[in-house]
Amino acid sequence: MREGERVTPLELFFDLVFVLALTQCTTLMAHLPTWDGLLKGLLVLGILWWSWVGYAWLTSVIDPEEGSVRLVVFLAMAGLLVAALCVPGAFGDEALLFACVYAVVRGAHIALFTIASRDDERLRQSVVGLAGSTALGVGLLVAAAFVGGAVQIGLWALALALDMLGPYLFGAEGWKLVPGHFAERHGLIVLIALGESIVALGVGAKTELDAGIVAAAVLGMVVAVTLWWVYFDVTAIVAERRLTRAQEGRERNELARDSYSYLHFPMVAGIALLAVGVKHTLADVSAPLQEAPTVALLGGAAMYLLAHVAFRLRNMHTLSRRRLVVGIALIALVPVTLALGISSLATLALLAAAMSALIIYEVLRYADVRDRVRHGVASPEAPPLLSDSTTAATESPAGTA
Questions:
Q1: 344-365 vs 264-283: helix crossing angle, rounded to 10
Q2: Which residues of 12-51 are buried (b: 16+ CB within 10 A; e: fewer)?
Q3: pLDDT digits (tens, 9 = 90+) for 226-263
Q4: Residue 388: exposure state from Cβ atoms within 10 A (0-12, 13-18, ≥19)
Q5: How many degrees, rounded to 5, is the angle at CA 376 between CA 375 and CA 381?
Q6: Would you tell me how many other CB atoms lie within 10 Å of the CB of residue 124?
Q7: What pLDDT band is residue 171 in, cutting at 50, 70 and 90?
């Protein structure tokens, strides 16, 4: 296992390639603002997310900047880049090319994991299981390249499901990870996704600015800031501590798999959907949003919040009622805004108001315990925010975890 918990420059470089993949997925959904377009964009994002997740686990057992490993990582980056370029045509003319370069990315990952597991029989068994589920996933994507319509979408969904279920079905005992490093990698990818929502503000804005565009940009920034606050103010701190304190082996690996590999995907997907809604809002701030963009805007934010609710439930075994309520309220706003035909700017303002109210409430209601967590005053043996048996764990900002 590698030593140290710092994310390396090469890992950051790898993540920057994922930025293009994320941008391409949001662009695909923005250009096809229909239910079919949103589904296709999320499926492509899911496939690319799982390839990124694999490398996040891999770099806990090997140093990506050592020797020939660096060259293989560069090869994977090239494959991921080409896959990102194929995203607009992933269900059309570039479907086969996408499947082939995706196979290269995953093949390089399995090859490096195989090398890393030479002296670890349990890890090697886990890698063999992962290789099997990966091969099935790639095979289904290749098959999907020769069909179309609902059958193609079904094959993509099955490929994603089988690939993601592999680590769950084959057990978690053999995997290894460095907690601080693993948590930081996922925190950085959330930050990258939030950056995409900021980019959406610039891409969606018209050349000539007016009061409506400026107002929408400011409101979009407010929403992005609240999403950042939801994760990084307390969640990232508490989640990393919880992962570090988990018993090494199966307990820690299952916690990392569920909390980070699985539950961070709806967070990233929610941000991507939000970016789609923001782009359409800025395209015409006075006109009502259509059905799919409205779902993307409000539903994306709701997905992000509900993923945090599930994140806390998995880590702390307690429920964040306030985030659950706000998430449900945002979903309920979708038919209301569509029925009333309110402008896209007003819809964005409602979202910004709801998210801001949530953050203000949490900051004021849990000011003391939040301060103790952020400044490390809580006891390392039994921090209040990490104890299931205390009232603080139930009512504190650990709900953000």
A1: 140
A2: eebbebbbbbbbbbbbbbbebbeeebbbbbbbbbbbbbbb
A3: 999 999 998 889 999 999 999 988 899 999 999 999 99
A4: exposed
A5: 165
A6: 16
A7: low
Region(s) of the chain under CATH 1.20.1410: 180-401
For residues 205 and 83, the answer to whether their CB atoms sit within 8 Å is: no
pTM of the model: 0.90
pLDDT tens across 376-393, in order? 754 433 344 433 333 344
Burial of 258 (0-12, 13-18, 19+ CB in 10 A): middle
Q: For 180-401, CATH number?
A: 1.20.1410
Q: Which residue has the tokens 């029989």?
A: 121
pLDDT above 60: residue 1: no
Tally DSSP H helices, then E strands, for the chain.
Answer: 17, 0
Only one residue has tokens 């805007």, namely 297
Q: Residue-wise over 133-162: b if at least 16 C-beta within 10 A, else e?
A: bbbebbebbbebbeeeeeebbebbbbbbeb
